[in-house]
């Protein structure tokens, strides 16, 4: 049983650990451990701009994943699932929550080399609408969009 709740300060250490672990698994060539402080500042800036973060926790209270998006614009900035919880439906539940928060349209950028994320987004109904470059890593990205039917 997974419960979706708003982020609260007590979850930040676990959220940061999850983010580092998930991204290290997805893109091992990047030192995400060195980006811990960046993540905290980045989320603070997003939340100041009316982004929201929802957390997925298992019955024992362990953090299984989270999603951060701006409900007005539908811009999804972060979605991460704990490596031990991957392929168990957590990502789908988080995307369902994102669609409740931004029901008409969700957009995002994804690293072109992140095959697992690309497959997930395509399965969730996202389509490529453009290309770009990640300002932090310099890696090529794709802009993707989901629209309600």
SSE order and pairing:
Elements: E1 2-6, H1 12-26, H2 36-48, E2 52-58, E3 63-70, E4 75-81, H3 90-101, E5 105-111, H4 115-123, E6 127-133, E7 140-147
Antiparallel strand pairs: 1-2, 2-3, 3-4, 5-7, 6-7
Can you walk me through this structure?
The chain is of the alpha+beta class and 149 residues long. It has a single domain (2-147), classed as Aminopeptidase, CATH 3.40.630. The chain contains four helices and seven strands, in the order βααβββαβαββ. The protein has helices at residues 12-26, 36-48, 90-101, 115-123; strands at residues 2-6, 52-58, 63-70, 75-81, 105-111, 127-133, 140-147. Strands 1-2-3-4 form a four-stranded antiparallel sheet, with helices on both faces. The radius of gyration is 14 Å and the shape is globular.
Poorly predicted regions? none
The total strand number stands at 7
Estimated helix fraction: 25-40%
Distance between the termini: 29 Å
As laid out across the biggest beta sheet, the strand order is: 1-2-3-4
> Count the helices. How many?
4
Total domains, how many?
1
What is the annotated CATH architecture? 3-Layer(aba) Sandwich
Multimer state: single chain
Q: What would you call the structural class?
A: alpha+beta
Task: Work out the radius of gyration.
Answer: 14 Å
State the CATH topology.
Aminopeptidase
């Amino acid at each position: 049983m997974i419960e979706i709740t708003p982020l609260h300060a007590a979850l930040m250490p676990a959220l940061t650990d999850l983010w580092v672990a998930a991204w290290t698994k997805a893109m091992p060539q990047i030192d995400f451990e060195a980006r811990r402080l960046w993540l905290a500042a980045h989320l603070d800036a997003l939340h100041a701009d009316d982004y929201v973060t929802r957390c997925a926790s298992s019955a024992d209270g362990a953090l299984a994943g989270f999603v951060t998006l701006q409900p007005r614009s539908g811009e999804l900035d972060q979605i991460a699932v704990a490596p031990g919880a991957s392929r168990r439906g957590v990502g789908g539940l988080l995307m369902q929550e994102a669609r409740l928060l931004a029901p008409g349209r969700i957009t995002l950028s994804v690293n072109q080399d992140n095959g697992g994320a690309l497959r997930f987004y395509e399965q969730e109904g996202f389509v490529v609408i453009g290309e770009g470059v990640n300002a932090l890593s310099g890696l090529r990205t794709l802009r993707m969009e989901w629209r309600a039917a």
